[in-house]
Structures are given as C-alpha cells and as structure tokens.
Amino acid sequence: MRRSATGWRARILSALSDPTRLEIVEFLGGEERCVCEIVPAFGRAQSTISKHLSILHEAGVLERRIDGKRTLYRIKSPRLFDLLRVVDAIALDEINELKKAEEALTSSVG
Amino acid sequence: MRRSATGWRARILSALSDPTRLEIVEFLGGEERCVCEIVPAFGRAQSTISKHLSILHEAGVLERRIDGKRTLYRIKSPRLFDLLRVVDAIALDEINELKKAEEALTSSVG
DNA sequence: TATACATATCGCCATGAGACGATTTGTTAT
DNA sequence: ATAACAAATCGTCTCATGGCGATATGTATA
C-alpha cells in the first residue's frame, strides 16, 4: 500500500493528536515499559490503552517487543522529542499571546 | 479557559493531522494568500476550506489579516517548518523500514 | 441603496475515532 | 492438560470530524 508524503505526515501527526497518546509518550520517556505498567498509570480500560499503543506503533512512533507473556513498548526515535519541543515552542507563543490579550483586557476593563 | 500543556500540544497537532490542512500549509509556504487563491487550488467547497483555515487559525498555526473584502492567511511562525521537517525525518525512517522489509520479501519469495 | 463579491457560519449527512466490556489468542506456571 | 495471566481484537455505543449546499455577514462598487 503506497502512501504519499502528506499521507505519512498526517498519519504520524494524527497518532500524536490525541491527549491520551501524548501522555503515553510522556509516560514512556526514554524507558521501555510493558502494557501492564502503562495501563494502571492511566484511568482507562486495558482495551483502550492497547488500541492507543497500536496506533502509535503503526504510525512508527513506538517500537514493540514481546518478551514472554509481556509486550514492551518504547519510543522508536529520539527525533520525537525534538518534535514535541517544537510543538511546545509554538504552544508557548500561543499561550503568551493569550496572556498578553488577557492583561490588556484586565487593565482596561477591570 | 485554561488549557494544559498536553491540551495545547494536542490542539496544534490535531490541526496538523488532516491531509487537506497539511496541503494548505504546504501551499501557503512563506507567502500570504487570500482565501480566493486557496479555494480554487483545492477541489473542495469554499465552506470546507474556510473551516480548515479556521481550525489552523484557532490552533495558532496561521495568522489572519483582513484587507477590504478579502481575508489573507499566512503561517504564523517559521517554527512550523522545523516541525514538518522533523515529521518528515520520522516518516522517512518509516518508509525506509518498509522498503527494507519489502526487499527482503521480494528477494526470498519472488 | 442596491448589487456583486468574498468569506464565514449553519444545518445536515456520512464516516471516523475513542471508550468500554466481552472474547480470543498466546504464554508461563501448576 | 489446566489454570492464570498479559495483551490484542471484536462488537457496540456515542461523539467528533469532514464534507457539502444554503444562508448570513460584511465590504467595495455601481
């Protein structure tokens, strides 16, 4: 199944567009962890977390390794952290902008 | 309305998780363009493109400027291009991995 | 002020995504 | 072989999203 550059971009970005999945990525950090550790860390059903992990895996964000009856996941490329840093930078710009707008309102109206 | 760091991340990444919106970003590049230029460049209804532009704008990805009866959009921060470059790097890893797997199959089966 | 133009918004439909519990698959331990 | 455990998959529900045409808003032009 062939997929355009935009298709791949969208696939990766979609995988990262869900809050729970972002938290999973955050939770993993640089570590390799099994599903049995991840599930209890979130207040979600095992099936839900498993699905999220699959999505991240299929997008090429996570690497999966099976060891006995456990399945272990870890972040595949440290590039991902670069990506999140850039997103945070853009988000920060956004937050500061809102803060400025809020201050302007407070000082003139309040 | 307060929003967590993860919330902001998800908002920005969601805005970028749609193929059409990625193409809009691509189409804009470093230029400022009006909706009347963007709409005909895509095979979509005007209302559809307008919605996509709003989503990108609300996520803080695009800047909006009204000039007479036109509305002009441009990419707000050059950081966005960094972001896309990182995504592409991850995507490339993914594509190369698939290619290797495909070659292995072809040489053993074909 | 009427008309045409540019864009946003609304209402609707079809599809996709996330959540869950139940079930299946696969592995170790008894 | 059976039981216990770990994780994936299935079926179903609900809500979000993308698409469209129609309509509303707002601006320049006649």
UniProtKB/TrEMBL annotation, chains A, B:
SUPFAM superfamilies linked to this entry: Winged helix' DNA-binding domain (SSF46785)
Residues covered by the HTH arsR-type domain: 1-95
Keywords: DNA-binding, Transcription, Transcription regulation
Xref: Pfam families: HTH_5
Record flagged with keyword Cell inner membrane: no
Origin superkingdom: Archaea
Gene3D superfamilies the UniProt entry points to: Winged helix-like DNA-binding domain superfamily/Winged helix DNA-binding domain (1.10.10.10)
Residues in the signal sequence: none
NCBIfam families registered for this protein in UniProt: HTH_metalloreg
PANTHER family: TRANSCRIPTIONAL REGULATOR, TRANSCRIPTIONAL REGULATOR, ARSR FAMILY
Protein name: Metalloregulator ArsR/SmtB family transcription factor
Protein species of origin: Candidatus Methanocrinis alkalitolerans
Lineage: Archaea, Methanobacteriati, Methanobacteriota, Stenosarchaea group, Methanomicrobia
